[in-house]
# Entry
Amino acid sequence: MHRLIGLIRYQELLWDLERISDMDIIYDDAEEIVRRNWKNFISRYTCNNTERFHAGNSWEEFGFQLICSQYNLSSRKYHNLEHISVVLQVVREILKWSLDKNLIKDPNSLYLLEAACVLHDVIYDTHSKTNEKDSAWFSINLLALYEAGADSVAVEEIIVATEHKKDFKVGCEDIFPGIEFLCDVIRDADLFILAESEERYDEYAKQIRQEYLWVSQMMYDAGRMAILNGLAAGQIYRTDFAKEQGWEEKALNNIKRELGFKK
# Structure
């Protein structure tokens, strides 16, 4: 049943992707964009134990409201629903291009990526160094309510990829063919902000600083410079789409500008 529903949803996704033309990110209606993508994913599953969900909410809406309760925290200046909305939109741009190039091994797995995008920053604490792993653990527990089975393992794997570690290795390619590609897609989409316009990048940099207001300026600048230098020292983007769009050069220009301001 899950496979059949997945194939139906995939056909709907194909239709959506075919409507995408130029890169045109929408910054309004973030909550609605995230809700739509969450419901697209979660509707693949049938829940036989609806009593586990709070009265007054549908079983789909329950999960969405739980997710929103995290992203809408007042401490979230950048890692909020707007960020998730942008990541989802960029992912769809990459998938549209990749579909045309026949780079997608398992079309049915695309909805795993949809869930991972929604959940990848659901836990975000600037005092913690395990946010991605904590978000992955949150996703496993949430998806267990929906009886998502092995799919939750793939979602966990894709979320952990957003740690952006250079030595990251995919652990379940044998079970989910093409998952390494999905990990590359979400990593590029997550870092798309670095290749944005100078104005948007500068706004993002200010939002990140606001999330770390508890850190002294001197300590923040040192930590931020270390992160930016680390990014600039290696290859930032992994997909052919990002390379074709020139994201690497744009991101390096923004990073160099910020580093110049902090010297």
Summary: The radius of gyration is 18 Å. The mean pLDDT is 86.
